[in-house]
Amino acid sequence: MKLVEKIFVILFFIALTGCKSDPDKKSVEKVVNDSMEILEDSLIVSEKDIELKKQQTINIKREELIKKEDERVELQDLVISKSFFKEEDLYVLDFKYPYLNEAIKPSYINFNEYLHKYYIDVKGVEAQILEDKELYCDTLRANSYREKRKVDYKIYNVNEQLISVLFYKENYYSGAMHPSYTFDCLNFDLNRSVFMNYEDFFIEGSEEELRTILNELLSEKIASGELFYDCWEISADDFFEYKNNFVVDDTAVEFYFDDCVICPSYTGTYSIKIPLEMLLPVLKKYNLNPLMG
Question: Is the pTM of this model over 0.70?
Answer without folding.
Answer: yes
